[in-house]
């Protein structure tokens, strides 16, 4: 009823108009996913099952038999699984104390430390590889430890990357757990460790499982880190695909290895999806209030987790980057100065590059801007649709399937995506243009990689909107479009800055797909850094260090600004 006693009516916008709008919001992302992800990946997989014959393509599994009979293949598979499992276990063990300190405790500078912890996750993999290589090399801070081109060195770099995933995912749930259950256990005589083990740890189980599954995915597909640090002794399925494609032009074997990798990451993605569903259900059972206490160091209650967190942040996160900056200031003749940075305006020793580092940086910025725009538009539409709670069971299943479909790029290697682009997008949809030489594929491939992170950043905020707000607006006469503008829009934009930051930073440092697709004259900065590492000469290596510092600072600045804009609002968990 209004003020005159008249009954308010729902808007008279035709129902088909709303359905048409939602249909377009679903069709656009699905079309993008089908053309630029499903088609290339499926075509690549089929390369392993079919062979060209004089009469056409025929089913031929001899490629599988050949690749799977090689000892090298199973050694590579074993190394991939060993590195991923070890990296996952260490990330979880070290991340739990960090989640407690940064989300359950309050202290000055906590927001700054949270942002600092997040930066390694979005740093370019090539930069991380160069930083740890400089750390472990003779003359580096840890040169005495013998970690250069070692299994332990690779695992430490993987933990550096994925520590933030555990801290943010587990910490997001931990800060909303009701502390009274643990307090009751303590009052009944339980020690702090027993109260944690019997009360808190089971409650955190879904978040820990979700974080572990995602970390395993990222460790199993860490292309740039292993390529730079592994040398000739250590590799993964991903680096083997790259080697067989770029060095031996063995597309058939590379396709078979891509199938193997899809099996591994597909299983991990299934576990991740189920664990994430359990975590979201568990979040509904926790308090909406943020529960945190002041960090207690004087009485020793929080001393152990605080010390572990301090050692990890200072020793594992800060030390490699500090070592990278220090080594970049060492000139080829052994003196200290900015010689390596001055050389960034050249093409390196013996013209190692076709563009200067500053030109490559410009290419990276332009490409990342386009990729971020595509990822935010497509990912924002997906998050908007998936955030809905339909009453019909069929629609709920469809929404769940859409959510799962757009998480697939998270588990499929960027190398597989880039390789698939090369073999499919010469004449897409019958168009008289070869996209492989147009330069458009690089931002599209980077957007494919960034879309899942955009969805995961915006979705928690959109799902947190009380549906009664939409119902009230509709009852008061607002059309569906106006409901979106006045209810979802203002609340959803809370996570927009962080989503843009993630998309831009991830695109800026993407190396896997870009290494296949970037032309020499439009090479991005990660590709240029890798080329400098592979060229002989102290001048080229010094330029690679300096260029890595530039790229790391730019990426870190983007993420710190995005994290600052978000503040303590929900969203941005993995």
TrEMBL record:
The keyword Lyase does not apply. Residues 77-272, 361-562 form the ABC transmembrane type-1 domain. It is found in: Cell inner membrane; Cell membrane. It is a multi-pass membrane protein. One of its GO terms (biological process) is transmembrane transport. Coiled coil: none annotated. InterPro entries: MetI-like (IPR000515), MetI-like_sf (IPR035906). Keywords: Cell inner membrane, Cell membrane, Membrane, Transmembrane, Transmembrane helix, Transport. PROSITE patterns: ABC_TM1. This is Thiamine transport system permease protein. The lineage of its organism: Bacteria, Bacillati, Actinomycetota, Actinomycetes, Micrococcales.
């Amino acid at each position: 009823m209004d003020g005159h006693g008249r009954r308010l009516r729902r808007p008279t916008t035709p129902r088909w108009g709303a359905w048409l709008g939602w249909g377009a919001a679903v069709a656009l992302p699905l079309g993008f996913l089908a053309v630029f992800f499903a088609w290339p990946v499926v075509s690549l997989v089929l390369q392993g099952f079919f062979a060209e014959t004089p009469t056409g393509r025929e089913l031929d599994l001899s490629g599988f038999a050949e690749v799977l009979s090689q000892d090298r293949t199973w050694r590579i598979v074993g190394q991939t699984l060993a590195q991923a499992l070890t990296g996952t276990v260490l990330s979880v063990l070290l991340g739990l104390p960090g989640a407690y300190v940064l989300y359950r405790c309050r202290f000055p500078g906590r927001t700054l430390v949270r942002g600092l912890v997040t930066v390694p996750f979005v740093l370019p993999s090539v930069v991380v590889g160069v930083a740890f290589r400089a750390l472990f090399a003779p003359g580096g801070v840890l040169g005495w430890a013998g970690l250069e081109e070692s299994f332990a060195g690779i695992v430490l770099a993987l933990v550096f990357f994925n520590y933030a995933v555990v801290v943010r995912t587990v910490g997001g749930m931990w800060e909303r757990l009701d502390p009274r259950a643990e307090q009751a256990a303590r009052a009944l005589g339980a020690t702090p460790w027993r109260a944690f083990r019997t009360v808190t740890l089971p409650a955190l189980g879904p978040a820990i499982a979700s974080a572990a599954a995602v970390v395993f995915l990222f460790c199993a597909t860490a292309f740039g880190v292993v390529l730079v640090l592994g040398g000739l002794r250590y590799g993964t399925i991903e680096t083997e695909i790259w080697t067989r494609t770029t060095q031996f032009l063995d597309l058939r074997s590379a396709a078979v290895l891509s199938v193997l990798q899809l099996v591994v990451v597909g299983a991990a993605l299934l576990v991740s999806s189920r664990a994430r569903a359990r975590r979201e259900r568990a979040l509904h059972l926790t308090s909406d209030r943020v529960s945190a206490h002041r960090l207690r160091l004087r009485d020793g209650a929080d001393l152990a987790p605080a010390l572990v967190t301090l050692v990890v942040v200072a020793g594992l996160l800060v030390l490699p980057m500090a070592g990278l900056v220090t080594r970049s200031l060492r000139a080829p003749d052994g003196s200290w100065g900015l010689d390596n940075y001055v050389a960034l305006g050249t093409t390196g020793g013996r013209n190692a590059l076709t563009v200067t580092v500053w030109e490559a940086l410009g290419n990276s910025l332009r490409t990342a801007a386009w990729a971020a725009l595509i990822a935010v538009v497509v990912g924002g539409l997906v998050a908007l649709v998936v955030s809905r709670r339909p009453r019909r069971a069929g629609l709920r299943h469809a929404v769940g399937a859409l959510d799962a479909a757009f998480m697939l790029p998270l588990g499929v290697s960027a190398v597989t995506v880039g390789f698939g682009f090369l073999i499919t997008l010469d004449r897409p949809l019958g168009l008289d243009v070869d996209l492989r030489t147009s330069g458009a594929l690089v931002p599209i491939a980077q957007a494919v990689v960034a879309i899942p992170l955009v969805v995961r950043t915006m979705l928690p905020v959109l799902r947190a909107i009380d549906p009664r707000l939409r119902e009230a607006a509709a009852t008061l006469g607002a059309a569906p479009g106006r409901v979106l503008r006045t209810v979802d829009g203002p609340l959803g934009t809370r996570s927009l800055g962080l989503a843009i930051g993630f998309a831009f930073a991830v695109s800026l440092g993407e190396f896997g797909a870009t290494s296949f697709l970037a032309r020499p004259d439009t090479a991005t900065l990660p590709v240029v850094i890798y080329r400098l590492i592979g060229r002989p000469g102290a001048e080229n290596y010094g330029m690679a260090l300096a260029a890595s510092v530039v790229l790391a600072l730019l990426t870190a600045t983007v993420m710190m600004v995005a994290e600052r804009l978000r503040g303590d609002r929900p969203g941005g968990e993995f």
